[in-house]
Input
Amino acid sequence: MKAIVYSQNGLPISDENALYELDVAKPQPGARDLLVNIHAIAVNPVDTKVRNGAPTDKPRILGWDAVGVVEAVGEDVTLFQPGDEVFYAGDITRAGSYAEYGLVDERIAGHKPRTLNDAGAAALPLTSLTAWELLFDRLEVQAEDNAALLIIGAGGGVGSILTQLARKLTNLTVIGTASRPETADWVRSLGAHHVVNHQQPLGEQLAAIGHPQVRYVASLTHTDSYYTQLVDVLAPQGKLALIDDPETLDVVPLKRKAISLHWELMFTRSLFQTCDMQRQHDILERVSQLIDDQTLQTTAGEHHGTINAANLRKAHALIESGRARGKIVLSGF
Output
């Protein structure tokens, strides 16, 4: 089968060897695996981080968002059957979705939303799981909670879903950050009550909209740049959750306000085969339902054409530029 791989980490994305096509063996499903004929994928920042930073001793297939049709199932599979349309974000320890076929444990896959095409659905799994887990599993927000949530980087992939979830499924006041007018408009269209500019002092802007302190902060990007400000604007006994990778993070400033710190990594459940691993299946099933009843909308941004090395290199370049809005999707081989 055709796959797009990398063999040497750290190559500039302009180098044709940074991502290249290779013919590899078609995988065979294990006991709880689905063998999926992949129709569409999305590209995430984690793809570029792994390509740049993770050495590999053999060609590695990246990609952690996929939509496709189940071709075969393992002997212990109970949640799906051949012919089902599925979407999933996969497992960081396994071969990814830049390939014609992929394997995924049934406990971390969901049925594709019926009302979306393949590309639209491919934009959802990783960001939906990350946003859902951050909001409901890490911050432990309750639907009736009437506090304020500040989302740093609300216009990105995770932020675009998190903004919708917080607005549609909770009573929170949702405050997103964006620096460009078009991104601010996007965040408002997704349901944010307010948008503030993260390139300007946050405290002054929050006070101006009547929320000088917030109970919850979801920091999705450049946490180390905003950290001091976030501690200042968090209310006593507030909660801070992050998904990015600051070089270091001093937790001592959190003590005086008894602020709790939460790190969200979507891959944790599959990485450690946790006893609640099937929660990701349940989340994706719920997201699919919310899409089909028009409570949520896909965050697919740019469609970069068919799944090939040249188009994937362009997608990686756009993500590395920091100017991607929503999700970059590709479909078909």
